[in-house]
């Protein structure tokens, strides 16, 4: 049977109507019955049957055994328990995989995942035409997925088709089709949870569509968020991610879930010496390097669930247009001057050396591997000619001093206006303390004219006669990348960036980027005399270090974005750990033991336990059958001296703390408040003694506990959305409720009669032994210890750089 015929055959069966999980269970049972020659009878579920086992129950062998679960029936019919141990374990392994993977994923949203998973495992199934226990079980679930999938999606899974055709050709499968069609209607007696049987407050629903263009609204809270534009010279590591993009994402998600009109903009910073240096190392053009690393960054951020409205780049025509226009206004207003600058010139390379092409000893702290623009050890900003014993990064030779004419932004003339801006901004925006301290130190030392041009080829060209051979310094044009990326998102970008009275700008970054965002960029905006939207709040991070020292891609030290994905630990767990350890006031250290411990003790035992206990009780208890009961009004009334009212009052106190922390961009404290609310919910279940005994002792009390606890985890889904969006979505899905806005008080938004969905596990335990395994894998390579090894390594690097330098001079910017 061809693939096209298979698709038609599947679609014809699907029209019977069989494309539901319940029908898939029926097909499993009927095929197993026919294959084993055992009589089964099926009927509608009794009222006492647990909801999760509905809509049918099965009498096996003429009524001697009563079973409810399809896989249990298959196990019984094939007498799996009597098989030799090895054979039984093989079958049980496949059945367990089907239950935890295929069946767990079997929703319309996950059909492609089900097909892909089944396709990868069919080689382990029987190759004969006979139908075994594992074949029968997987046949039902695979059929459900195939009958619902689109033809284009089905065509990708050839191995699954071949196996599926072989099973359908067997006598067991073919002979049950009439009974399948005859009985399918009887097993579909229970309506699955839908929007129609939801009972949720109408104005609580929240949604975010990144395809929708967001523009400021009159009378609304318009929030503009940026995170520092990452350089395209490497894969971001955990410190990069928490330092800017993830922190900004948490606040953007919080802002949206509070109902605020929010735009989150980011992109790759692609011009400047850093790009030229990395392109030389890799032997490719600057454009090729930018294309490569921009794609890698986007892949990492997509996996981490970062909710950019737009993620762009700075090597665009819009960047050139806006940077040049801004410069021309600054120049026309008298804030740009010209001066001779003594620079280092490499006679071997025949070129002026930009800052990043020079290395040497820091004049401030004596560090012998300082860069020409900044010392990584003490953090002092430098000019390349200030270095002691400078050397050319390309060939290691000592450069000479020569004069070159450059343009300067006159920050000294702008200092009074900049100081006025800083005072007004930090008082209104509650800047982070390290951002304010760094800015005040710059202003206290006194601003000086800052060179804004460089002798490079890769960058925005300077639109001024006599400077055609120069480009703008990356820290003049990088911050203008925020407006230019927005301009590539919408032609109405000025409604965001030239709207100071109606937009609040929040910016996130590591502490090393602070002065460029609080002094240089604001001074540029002031010098242009345009009505720019200026910084309202700056949120800065200290450094996140790896347990053995600094992150180093070259030495294999630390966890980079792609490594996090490779561990198999879900992105939400990574997000939680990084945000809970956000280095807001001092450096923090990533350790594997702490990572595993926080997953197991905080996520699994706190949040996971609360949600799973409540949803499972409501779903499996036959007295509720997944329907939210009404709370006793007297037990939850204001002022009532009850466990339930104390829970509500305590949650409202913690909720106020959460909102206060998040509004002030104290992200770590906000997450801590959310976790305290979850812990308070667990204590409530413990104090209330939630179990089946509670129902028999006091129906009113049990109803109230269930109603309050179910609504508490619904509130928790909104509280956790900024930090763990997939977890938040899972909670909403289990409650059969829309993802919700965050209100400032705890109320019962899920109303009596609301039908919940199916339980899911939010988190899985991580074996503590994994910490040692990951530590060994990401602990770094052994560095060469002898002087000869170091010299050989340096000479090889120098030789490669010299060979590549000749081609680099031919590179031109693609503007």
TrEMBL record:
It is found in: Cytoplasm. The keyword Ligase applies. It is an enzyme of class 6 (ligase). Keywords: Aminoacyl-tRNA synthetase, ATP-binding, Cytoplasm, Ligase, Nucleotide-binding, Protein biosynthesis. Pfam families: Anticodon_3 (PF19303), tRNA-synt_1g (PF09334). One of its GO terms (molecular function) is methionine-tRNA ligase activity. One of its GO terms (cellular component) is cytosol. Residues 805-815 have a biased composition (Polar residues). Residues 775-815 are annotated as: Disordered. InterPro entries: aa-tRNA-synth_I_CS (IPR001412), Anticodon_Met (IPR041872), Met-tRNA_ligase_1 (IPR023458), Met-tRNA_synth (IPR014758), Methionyl/Leucyl_tRNA_Synth (IPR015413), MetRS_core (IPR033911), MetRS_Zn (IPR029038), Rossmann-like_a/b/a_fold (IPR014729). It catalyses: tRNA(Met) + L-methionine + ATP = L-methionyl-tRNA(Met) + AMP + diphosphate. Its main location: cytoplasm. Coiled coil: none annotated. Residues 223-614 form the Methionyl/Leucyl tRNA synthetase domain. Residues 643-782 form the Methionyl-tRNA synthetase anticodon-binding domain. GO terms for biological process: methionyl-tRNA aminoacylation. SUPFAM superfamilies: Anticodon-binding domain of a subclass of class I aminoacyl-tRNA synthetases, Methionyl-tRNA synthetase (MetRS), Zn-domain, Nucleotidylyl transferase. Its EC number is 6.1.1.10. Belongs to the class-I aminoacyl-tRNA synthetase family. NCBIfam families: metG. PANTHER family: METHIONINE--TRNA LIGASE (PTHR45765), METHIONINE--TRNA LIGASE, CYTOPLASMIC (PTHR45765:SF1). This is methionine--tRNA ligase.
